[in-house]
Amino acid sequence: MLTLPTNLVSDMAQPPIQSTVHVDRITIYRHQQSILLLTDDVPSGSLTVSICESEKSRPSIIRESSLAIQSFFSNSKVPPSRLIYITAGLAFEPTSPKPFGGPKTHPGYVEYDGKTVASLLEYLVESSFKRYWACRGREALDFVAGCVNRARKLHYAGNADILNELLLKGMKKSGHIAWNKSATIPEALRHRQEAQSDVETNEVQFTPRLSRSKHVFQVMKADVA
After folding, report:
1. What is the pTM of this model?
2. 3-state class of 39 per DSSP?
3. What per-residue confidence (pLDDT) applies to 174?
4. 107 and 92 Cβ atoms separated by less than 8 Å
5. Rg (the chain; Cα; Å)
6. Which is it for the CA torsion 110, 114, 117, 122, positive or negative?
7. Which residues, 6 or more positions from 56, have their beta carbon under 8 angstroms from its beta carbon?
8. Which of 20, 22, 84, 200 is 20 to 30 A (C-alpha) from 211?
9. Beta bridge partners of 48
10. What is the pLDDT of residue 154?
11. 160 sits in which H/E element
């Protein structure tokens, strides 16, 4: 009879060691990814994320979406370049969703290294679509569309100080002007007041906090109106 050493018998009685290697969960989607496109929805006066029924190549989606933003911005007195920088000022924050946000020491937007407004617009559009194509979630697309709509609404609200601050922030975070130097806004990018607003401005704006008495007065005034 074969006699096994005591320590070997003890080892055989122990349960097998569990592997510390974790396999990533694989997600299987049962439906095809929708073809999305940024469109200038003229009736609603907003940029929207729309489902495209026809097949389109990815380069054409990026190109048409970029043109939609330019068209959306072209109806104001300021050039689209100003509003694109303001959009970047809104979008380029560590707290923004990926691919723009991330750790404060290295947020996603630092990957942008272009030198022109056209390349900045392309980066905003292309990065959000690449995120959608890779991960299927449309959070980045909705975020960019929201920043574009926000930039235009702020412009029509007419607070030049807030707009200029966002403009310079967008220019600095995109690397188009130096961080540590004072900057003068070029004449072509300066604010121009619209004769009248064609945009609803009833959402929360970046305005100084009102005292309680002023707030109550404004609410009473609105109720009377």
Report:
1. 0.74
2. strand
3. 97
4. yes
5. 26
6. negative
7. 35, 37, 64
8. 200
9. 39
10. 97
11. helix 160-173
In a domain, 3, yes or no: no
Q: 21 lies in a domain?
A: no
Structure tokens at 84: 């694109």
Domain that holds residue 100: 33-196
- Count of domains in the chain? 1
C-alpha 155/C-alpha 197 separation (Å) is 9
Residue 36 token pair: 């999305």
94 is written with which tokens? Answer: 């560590």
Q: What is the mean pLDDT of each run of 10 residues along the chain (225 residues)?
A: 50 48 47 88 95 92 98 96 98 97 95 97 98 93 98 96 97 93 92 71 35 39 41
CA separation for the pair 182, 128 (Å, rounded): 31
Amino acid in the structure at residue 171: M
204 falls within a domain: no
Task: Read off the amino acid at residue 91.
Answer: A
CB 177 within 8 A of CB 171: yes
Structural domain includes residue 111: yes
Handedness of CA 61, 67, 71, 76 (dihedral sign): positive
Exposed (0-12), middle (13-18) or buried (19+): which is 170, by Cβ within 10 Å?
buried
- Residue 112 C-alpha from the chain's centroid: 14
Sequence-distant contacts of 56-65: CB under 8 A, at least 24 apart: 58/129, 58/133, 61/35, 61/36, 61/37, 61/129, 62/122, 62/125, 62/126, 62/129, 64/37, 64/38, 65/37, 65/38, 65/39, 65/125, 65/129
